[in-house]
Amino acid sequence: MVSANRIIIAGGGLAGLIAAIRLNRAGYACTLIEKKRYPFHRVCGEYISNETTAFLKREGLYPEEFNPPQITELHLSSVSGKSSTTPLDLGGFGVSRYAFDNYLINIAQKEGVQVLLDTEIEQISFDKVFQIKTTVQSFESDFVIGAFGKRSRLDVQLSRKFIKERSPYVGVKYHVRTAHPANRIGLHNFRGGYCGVSNVEDGKTNICYLTHRDPLKKLGSIEALEKHIVFENPLLRELFRNAEFLFDKPEVINEISFETKEPVWNHIFMAGDAAGMITPLCGNGMAMAIHSAKIVTDLLIEHQGRSRDELETAYTRAWRRAFSTRLWFGRQIQHKLFGTEWGSNLGVTLAVHSKFIANSLIKVTHGKPF
Ligand SMILES: Cc1cc2nc3c(=O)[nH]c(=O)nc-3n(C[C@H](O)[C@H](O)[C@H](O)COP(=O)(O)OP(=O)(O)OC[C@H]3O[C@@H](n4cnc5c(N)ncnc54)[C@H](O)[C@@H]3O)c2cc1C
Fold first, then answer.
1. SS3 of 211, please?
2. Taking a C-beta distance cutoff of 8 angstroms, is the pair 134, 120 a contact?
3. Does 3.50.50.60 match the CATH number of domain 6-166+256-365?
4. Position in ligand 1 atom list of the atom nearest CA 17
5. Closest-lying ligand 1 atom to the alpha carbon of residue 275
6. Which of 191, 208, 272, 303 is deepest in the core (most CB within 10 A)?
7. Does the global pTM surpass 0.85?
8. Ligand 1: which residue has its CA nearest to atom 52?
9. CA distance linking residue 142 with residue 16, whole number of Å
10. Is 51 in contact with 14 (CB distance < 8 Å)?
11. Is 289 in the pocket of ligand 1 (CB under 6 A)?
12. Domain ranges of the chain
């Protein structure tokens, strides 16, 4: 039997923040360690599926004060700009990570979570208890929740299998002001990628696209990529032309991997992208991060008497039940449909012309409210 007195949360994205707040409320001494300082921007489409809304409201964590736009329809377009609109059964809301993560860290700190910012975890090792070495100090803990996102130096230190493979995807994000309908998420296809467009707080619009690194390498800059490839879709060309850009330069990340990961590794309970990342096309990575934080914290709170082995088995099973199927569909759509130019054209053209296909794709890649 393990007494979960001390819990370290490694990483303060949505998974880490929600886990820290819930465990602290349940009386655990938990420390959240984040390498950056809030508020900060992240490459993310910032559309949050309504799968999360009931949970966030129950926990008093729904970001009501930002009056998030409610998103109820999907506007899909193909490379040539052919488009159709389809209602979203469940829909979602829009809030920037800059605002939402900062809102949650303020709640965590106000409620007494020990928070270490500007502190990178360099090493996590386990021998009956965990030893955590950071850039500032070292800690011992009974449990670690790994919420360090899609790719971290910790994955290298922990010798995780997926980190050995290079990944070809690049993500680019802007905030702009433009006349984008508040209830709409746009998903616009271009050669080798797709671009999400939806509103966040204060009437701002998020433009976020995922592409392959090869055309970017060939053309030499984001600007050239947009001019020669992204703007082939006339809807995207118009969108960029009429927008007022609010960042000096785009937020960019690379090496985005959708490969299979393990929900428990070296006794660490992985949550959010650290356990498995769904393609952004599905628009529910944040919902999965929040949901996985709920699953792992419910388990730690409700099953205190169980052995470490039992807890790890129960978490792996619960995580797979909740997410494996949609991750698999997400990977098929990303690699098979969007992995080739003709595949993505065909996929989007079919979805543009058939509401049934569009709805089926949405259904298999989304979960239910929790
Ligand atoms: C292009 C793109 C568009 C997307 N669009 C959407 C969308 O519209 N809707 C949606 O739901 N999802 C979207 N996603 C996915 C979504 O962004 C992620 O699923 C979500 O951010 C995962 O949250 P997380 O808490 O697991 O990780 P993150 O939010 O990445 O947080 C991880 C944290 O860990 C910290 N960290 C890392 N290593 C260390 C360390 N060694 N020590 C201390 N701290 C560390 C990082 O600084 C970071 O703050 C998109 C993703 C991409 C790439």
1. strand
2. yes
3. yes
4. 25
5. 26
6. 272
7. yes
8. 44
9. 17
10. no
11. yes
12. 6-166+256-365
